[in-house]
Amino acid sequence: MCRSAWVNQVIERLGAETMTSKDKMGLIGKKLGMTRIFTEEGVSIPVTVIEIEKNRVTQVKDIKTDGYCAVQVTTGQKKTSRLKKPQRGHFEGTKTIRSKRATLDNPEIIKEVLTSKDPVTAGRGLWEFRIAEDQKFLRGEEITVEIFAEVKKVDVTGTSKGKGFAGVVKRWNFRTQDATHGNSLSHRAPGSIGQNQTPGKVFKGKKMAGHLGDERVTVQSLDIVRVDAKRNLLLVKGAVPGATGGNLIVKPAVKA
């Protein structure tokens, strides 16, 4: 089966709505920290300040070639010397080297370098957003925080702070066992984790001690308090996951 026929079957199976509706463009930002601002009535609002530099489009995907519509973006700066060859080719544009064999008249090998894509300034990473089929973007286009000017709520995704190996009390909020009355060495122990002969095993997903944090977390429906296009800042009400300086994915809220 050819790829185009397979893509058409996927579209028919999923339906056109899943490809075109509710797919909204987002941006990549950096967490600067938390502060508070006051309303005209004097009410204090805790806000997280997110710096959203210009996001540059590095690749545009469509249904015909990729099976879905999406935009790949980057932000920030990264030295070219720090890029691997595949990354350098992706940012600078695909280069095709065509060599001509040496002849008696011209003993030197001639190489022609053909570039098929416009170069884009390398950033600190690559991220992808699903978009509707009718949304159009171009490689190299810059997207700013102004796209959130008419948006009221956003979903923010980040990587939570890593806290290392933690016990069940800290990790899963288990209550502690008795401090006295004959109990010793088991004050913060989880207790029984298994069964008897049937089923004779510990079920998957059992809440036990282990690594806490450093995982992808999404906070939904945060109110946008202010959009500062001049300073590339977005202020949202409440806290967002991750440490100061961490990357954040900001998208219009799904449940808005």
TrEMBL record:
Pfam families: Ribosomal_L3
Signal sequence residues: none
Gene: rplC
Domain of life according to the entry: Bacteria
A GO biological-process term: translation
Membership in a protein family: Belongs to the universal ribosomal protein uL3 family.
Gene Ontology CC entries for this record: cytosolic large ribosomal subunit
Keyword rRNA-binding: yes
Annotated spans, Disordered: 180-199
Gene Ontology molecular function, alphabetical: rRNA binding; structural constituent of ribosome
PROSITE patterns hit by this protein: RIBOSOMAL_L3
Protein name from the UniProt record: Large ribosomal subunit protein uL3
Gene3D superfamilies registered for this protein in UniProt: Translation factors
Chain positions with N5-methylglutamine modification: Q197
UniProt PTM comment: Methylated by PrmB.
Keyword RNA-binding attributed: yes
Subunit architecture: Part of the 50S ribosomal subunit. Forms a cluster with proteins L14 and L19.
InterPro entries documented for this protein: Ribosomal_uL3, Ribosomal_uL3_bac/org-type, Ribosomal_uL3_CS, Transl_B-barrel_sf
SUPFAM superfamilies for the chain: Translation proteins
Known function: One of the primary rRNA binding proteins, it binds directly near the 3'-end of the 23S rRNA, where it nucleates assembly of the 50S subunit.
Keywords: Methylation, Ribonucleoprotein, Ribosomal protein, RNA-binding, rRNA-binding
Source organism per UniProt: Candidatus Regiella insecticola
